[in-house]
Amino acid sequence: MRTEREKMLAGEPFNAMDPELVDARKRARRLCHQMNLADPDDGELRASIIRELFGKTEEYAIVQPPFHCDYGSNIYLGTLVFFNFNCVVLDSAEIRIGNNVFIGPATQIYGATHPLDPAKRLELDIGTSGRPVTIGSGVWIGGGSIICPGVTIGDGCTIGAGSVVTRDIPPNSLAAGNPCRVIRTLDHATERPPFTAQP
């Protein structure tokens, strides 16, 4: 028989009150608490907590406190991932983030979901499930955005501040809004950052 954790990671309904999962969430909360209270000058301590918290981290993972997540162990980061202040990641499913990704303040990434039927939401064994979220490399997510369960954001995308991303965004897109929609395709060879002086 499979464990509730195995069901969770398979995207099937699971019992979130299973003792193994409760302990795993407590572990994540302890580590987040330690990181959020760590001395800003103690970069070594903060880096060690980040390595312990997440399922995988490469070089230069930077997390500005406060940061909160459900498990941490289901979050996989590439090289140079930056979380700005006050981000939340609900990682009941795997959250995979590529290289060179900037995540603006107060961004929320949701891997957790629930049934639409209110009666089913109350049943422990089927009331919670998860859908993985994938964020490609070279992505910038504007502050206050919400990334919903099951979404993939392609490489090279920029997501406008305050967006609610409910469906996949193709690579090299500028997308924004609620719901988030593609505004145009980005040509990275000619794009300039905003407010940059022209030559």
State the main characteristics.
single chain; 199 residues; alpha/beta; UDP N-Acetylglucosamine Acyltransferase, domain 1; 7-stranded mixed β-sheet; 5-stranded parallel β-sheet; disordered C terminus
Gist of the model:
By secondary structure, the chain is α/β, with parallel strands linked by helices. It has helices at 4-9, 19-37, 43-53, 118-121; strands at residues 61-63, 67-69, 75-77, 81-83, 87-90, 95-97, 101-103, 108-110, 112-113, 129-130, 133-135, 140-141, 146-147, 152-153, 158-159, 164-165, 173-176, 181-185. β17 and β18 form a beta hairpin.
CATH topology: UDP N-Acetylglucosamine Acyltransferase, domain 1
Query: Largest sheet, described in full?
Result: 7 strands, mixed
The number of strands is 18
Beta percentage is 25-35%
Order of helices and strands: HHHEEEEEEEEEHEEEEEEEEE
Total domains: 1
Detail the poorly predicted runs. 195-199
Percentage of helical residues?
10-25%
* Average pLDDT metric: 93
Shape: globular
Cα radius of gyration in angstroms: 18 Å
The CATH superfamily label reads Hexapeptide repeat proteins
Distance between the termini: 65 Å
Strand order of the largest sheet: 1-4-7-12-15-17-18
The helix-and-strand class reads: alpha/beta
